[in-house]
Every structure is written in C-alpha cells, then in structure tokens.
Specification:
The structure is a single chain. This protein is an alpha/beta fold. The protein folds into 2 domains: 305 residues, 3-Layer(aba) Sandwich (Aminopeptidase); 110 residues, 2-Layer Sandwich (Alpha-Beta Plaits). The chain is globular, with a radius of gyration of 23 Å. The relative contact order is 0.18. Bound molecules: (2S)-amino(hydroxy)ethanoic acid and manganese (II) ion (2 copies).
Amino acid sequence: MAPARSGATADRPLLRASFDGVWSDLEGVGRDPRSGGYDRFSWTGVDLGLREWFAAEATRRGLEVEVDRNGNQWAWWGAPADGAVVTGSHLDSVPGGGAFDGPLGVVSALLAVDALKAAGVVPERPLAVVNFVEEEGARFGLACLGSRLMTGAVDSSHALSLTDDDGTTLADAMSAAGHAPEHVGLDETALARIGVFVELHVEQGRHLALGDESVGVASSIHPHGRWHFCFEGEGNHAGTTRLDDRHDPMLPFAEVVGAARRLAVEAQAVTTFGRVRVDPNGTNAIPSRVDAWLDARGADQGGVVRLVDDLQRIAEEAAAGHGVGLTVTRDSFTPVVDFDASLSDRLRSSLGAASISAPTLPTAAGHDAGILASRVPTAMLFVRNPTGISHSPVEHAETDDCVDGVEALTVVLRDLLVAPLEVVPAAGGQPGAGARR
Ligand code: HGY
Ligand code: MN
Ligand code: MN
C-alpha cells in the first residue's frame, strides 16, 4: 500500500507521466535486447551516451553541468558554492544489470527539481544532482571509484593503473573518452560544496516489500569487501596428462567455493564468487591459471574478516595439495557505515510532516553515499523493490512506488533547501560528518 500522498507535488498524474517520459528516454541506453540486462561501464561509448543524456536532461532544466577532476558529473541549480544540498546516484551497472540500480536515484533527483521549481520553491542554498562514475566497479574492479577518488579513499596512481579485462587502464580509458586523467584524486573543492548528500536508491532486498511502505530511510551499510584469489597451476593437455602429473588450479578453486559458502553460514555473512577468469579457458586444456573474485559481506565486521582469513588458509592448503600457487589480494574493504543520525532524523521528520511513513532499514549494498559518509553528512532513501532482486535484468520497481520516491525526495530536499542546515554532532555517524551551514 503506497503511503499517504505527500502533497509535495500538486499533480501526481503529471509527475507519473514525467517519470515515464524521462525513464523511457534512458531505458534503452546500454540494454542488451536479448537478456534485457544492462552493460553500462564507465568511459565506454555507452557511458558517453549516458553522460550526454544526463547533460541534456540537466540543461533542459536550466541546471549548469560540470564534470569534476574524477569524471563525476554535477548539475547545479544555483551557482556552485560550499554547503550545497547534493543528491543523485550513478548511471553505470554491473554486467547484465538491472534498470533501476543507480538510474532511479538520478532520475528521481531530476524530477524532484522539476517538482520543487513547479512549487515555486526558492532555495536558500544551491542544489546539485550528481552522477558518480564507476560506482559498480564493473570495468576496473573497484566499486565507488568516483567517490573514492574524490574523498581520497583510493590512491590516485593505483586507481589510474587499474585495468579492465582487455588490459586497458583507467588512465587510458579516461583519455580515450576525452577526460584528462592526470588530475584525478582528492577533491576538497567538491567536498566543501557538499553540505549534505541524500541518495535515493532502489532497495536491493525485500525489507520494504515485506511491509506496507514504498519508501524507507537507510540506517547503515554492512561491512563489505572484495578479494582477488589467483590460483596458478600448469597448463597442459586435458587428455594426455596423467592425473598424478597435473597441477590443475580449478581444483583448489572448487574447494574454496564450497568452503566460502560453509563459512558464510557459520559467520551469518554472505560470500559470492561471481566473477571468474580461466586461462586459457579451453575445453581440452587444463587451465594454467584461475582468477576469482570474492565478495564477502556481513553485519558483523569481525566475522567477515575472520571468514576471509579462514578461507585464505583453506585456499592455501588446497592449492599446496595440488602443487598450485596462490596469491590473495584485498581489492577493497568498506567498514560499517552508520549514516549521519541527525540528518536521517531530519529526513524522517520532514517525511512525517508530509504524512509519508518511512521505515528505517539497513542495507548490505555499497553506495557512493557510504563512501562520502566519511567526509560529509549523508543519508539514503530506498524505494520498494517487489522481489528484492538486483544486479539482474529482472530488477524492478513499480512506477507508483518510484513516484512515491520522487515525492519523498522532493519533501526532503525542500526542507534541506529552505530551512537552515544546522551544525549538529554526527551522533552515530562518521567522525566529522555533522551537517554544515
Ligand atoms: O555492490 C554493491 O553493493 C553495490 O550495488 N554497488
Ligand atoms: Mn549495484
Ligand atoms: Mn547502486
């Protein structure tokens, strides 16, 4: 059941029509007609199409578009200045991803600007809609790359040396897309401009689907990380090589996959090996090498760390047993993120004042809001996902719920744009993340 209408937008049918219109313009970009999934990877031709779409939608609204040193796009309502209200999300996807993860936050932000302007809101401070680059890390392997670079959470030269599956570095991909890579890194100017950041996102889970509300407020992001397991064996003929003579990297890898699931159950965590590269990947060739990437997450940070340590020990024993080499590299780890309590409370109270009831829920999905939380006050809104499925072509959100999301975001932004942004201690948030004037 959708929440009581907030009344934030005078005409809901018009808003629904606007949503359908903007959504349909974006829907085809980077979509595989066979699977219905999306391959939207940073600094590719598809990404250029997405960036052009973003710039056109922003310009159509009279917003000033800028691209920062890390390639994130910013659309400004009002001259860029410190202490702005910033919203938005990302447009890239995982391989074969869904339509809503990321784009729903960007589209909703643009439509919220429409609603605020239609309501005659005169902001006390600038507003920016942002499109963060490479949030999924699908091309270069590091999630939230644009926000990590901006906050200095990743070393710039390390980031520029990251390669995609074809061996193209981030630096070369950015150059080829016409964006100079040499200035990537910590961007204090961009960070100072963020007074508060509010990201709307489709829920990646079923908390809302199991309840009555279509919109929720995030409390926290579970600790999560990515580890690269590289098993190096000896390539050989699949038919002529005796079993005793084999050093097959696939075998220790297979043991590790099973162990990862067992350890996840014990630790009440989740583990996934969703990405595997087998060299030379021939039916009649014993692999010389297997590269596999582990995604491990859980509410208990210590439990996740112990799980990966145990798994690494199991992998080392299994590899040794097959005369296979092993290296394990931690690609990223994001500790628990508790969103800024005072900002989240403020979201809840402005939603309540607009008679929108929104439960509070945690998530195990990473977001740019989670990375920014270490530097600026951030909060998130979630929109109901009936199946909870995400990172899949079947990811979905009902249009009525998406419109509820736009209305909720409009209510929240209206409050943040016109009322003072007090400086509040970030109770339970990250150090130094209190809202700023
Ligand atoms: O992987 C994640 O948690 C997010 O969807 N990027
Ligand atoms: Mn995602
Ligand atoms: Mn996302």
